[in-house]
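Quick one, probably user error.
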């Protein structure tokens, strides 16, 4: 009975290990990035198959050798632990690990410097700031700091103010706010222009000056953006709301 139980445990261990190897191998093929941890896993995988092939050939060809079953079980245990670590870290870690490693390697070298986009990307990975959170941060920053009033504001400058990469900021605006960067800036500028056009203290101020104070450089662009958002031209809007 004891021998039967041991054989059953051994067969079950082999079955579980084989399934685990198959799953990990599939995930390994699907992952484009490389790192040291996965090289260790590959070594374990190769060793597992080598031992398995030797045992199979010894059985088929009646070789007078006996590969210690304990060795196979040790390898199976190693594969199992590596697999647990793999699933515990998750695929997100494998996707970002090379970026983090690259940032650490470049930061310690005087002969190589990170570009602004690379350093921003590494900062995004380390901070692990999700796009919804960044969208809230962006909205608050736009309301309080009003960076859209700068005539030459760009996605790079705004990203630097928020301490994120331009790529992440642009992606967040597209995915969370459902518009592009230029539409975002234009909407805030138009909203600012509407407030100033209704301000009694600015009633005598020319629309052209209000346009420039809101960040617009072109009158035609301002009129087009304003009419698209409000439905009327800036002058008509002022007349409608300033009538006694």
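Nope, works fine. Designed sequence:
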């Amino acid at each position: 009975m004891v021998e039967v139980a041991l054989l059953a445990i051994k067969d079950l261990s082999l079955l579980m290990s084989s399934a685990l190897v198959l799953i990990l191998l599939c995930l390994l093929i699907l992952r484009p990035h490389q790192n040291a941890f996965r090289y260790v896993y590959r070594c374990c995988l190769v060793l597992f198959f080598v031992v398995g092939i030797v045992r199979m050939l010894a059985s088929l060809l009646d070789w007078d050798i006996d590969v210690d079953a304990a060795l196979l079980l040790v390898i199976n245990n190693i594969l199992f632990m590596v697999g647990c670590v793999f699933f515990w870290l998750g695929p997100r870690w494998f996707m970002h690990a090379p970026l983090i490693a690259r940032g650490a390697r470049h930061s310690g070298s005087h002969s190589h410097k990170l570009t602004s986009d690379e350093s921003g990307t590494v900062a995004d990975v380390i901070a692990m700031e999700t796009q919804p959170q960044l969208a809230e941060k962006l909205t608050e920053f736009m309301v309080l700091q009003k960076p859209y009033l700068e005539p030459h504001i760009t996605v790079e400058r705004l990203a630097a103010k928020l301490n994120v990469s331009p790529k992440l900021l642009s992606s967040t605006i597209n995915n969370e706010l459902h518009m592009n960067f230029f539409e975002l800036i234009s909407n805030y500028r138009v909203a600012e222009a509407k407030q100033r056009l209704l301000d009694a203290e600015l009633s005598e101020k020319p629309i052209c000056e209000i346009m420039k104070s809101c960040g617009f450089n072109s009158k035609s662009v301002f009129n087009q953006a304003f009419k698209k958002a409000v439905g009327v031209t800036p002058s008509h809007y002022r007349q409608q709301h300033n009538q006694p």
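The first helix runs from residue 2 to 30.
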